[in-house]
Inverse folding.
C-alpha cells in the first residue's frame, strides 16, 4: 500500500470512528493533516486539516462529508449500520497493529453494540468470557487468540458501503 493509500485508509477509518463516537473531531483533523502530508489533496481536505481543535468540534460534521467525497471516500451517516460496521473494522485493524488491546476491543464492541449487531455477536460473547475468566474453563490466552482471529477476519473483509453517502447539503 502506498503512503497515499495508507493515508486515505486512515482518514476513512477516522471518519467512520468519529461518526460512531469512537474518536474526537480533532483526531479526524489530525488524520486530514497526515493525509495532506502523504500527498492527498482536495479543497475540502485542506479546509478540514486547517481546523483548530476548537473549530473541529463544530466544523467536522459540516466539512467531512464533502472532503471525503472529493477523495472518493465514504461518509457514513451517524448511527448508520454501514457506519457501525466500518467502525468495527477500523477498531479491528487497530487491534492488529497493537494500538488497542484485545480486551479493550471486545469491551468497546460490547458497550456500543451489545449483542445486537450480527457482525460483532461473537466479540460480545468473548467480552462476557473475559468477565468470567475465574469461573470458566478457558484461559485469557485462549480468549485473546480467538479475539485476534475475529479481528483478522473483520479487518480482511472488504469495506463495501451498503448505504449512500450523506453530504448534508
Amino acid at each position: 500500500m502506498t503512503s497515499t493509500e495508507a493515508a486515505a485508509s486512515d482518514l476513512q477509518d477516522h471518519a467512520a470512528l468519529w461518526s460512531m463516537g469512537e474518536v474526537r473531531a480533532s483526531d479526524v483533523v489530525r488524520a486530514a493533516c497526515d493525509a495532506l502530508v502523504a500527498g492527498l489533496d482536495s479543497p475540502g481536505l485542506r479546509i478540514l486539516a486547517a481546523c483548530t481543535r476548537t473549530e473541529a468540534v463544530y466544523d467536522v460534521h459540516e466539512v467531512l462529508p464533502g472532503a471525503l467525497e472529493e477523495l472518493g471516500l465514504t461518509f457514513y451517516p451517524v448511527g448508520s449500520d454501514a457506519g457501525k460496521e466500518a467502525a468495527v473494522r477500523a477498531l479491528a485493524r487497530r487491534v492488529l497493529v497493537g494500538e488497542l488491546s484485545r480486551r479493550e476491543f471486545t469491551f468497546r464492541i460490547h458497550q456500543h453494540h451489545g449483542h445486537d449487531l450480527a457482525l460483532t455477536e461473537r466479540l460480545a460473547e468473548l467480552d462476557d468470557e473475559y468477565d468470567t475468566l475465574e469461573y470458566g474453563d478457558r484461559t485469557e490466552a485462549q480468549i485473546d487468540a480467538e479475539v485476534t482471529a475475529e479481528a483478522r477476519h473483520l479487518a480482511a473483509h472488504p469495506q463495501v458501503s451498503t448505504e449512500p453517502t450523506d453530504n448534508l447539503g
User: Anything to note?
Assistant: The CA atoms of residues 107 and 127 lie 6 Å apart. The chain has two domains: 3-70, 81-156. Confidence is low (pLDDT under 50) at residues 160-169.
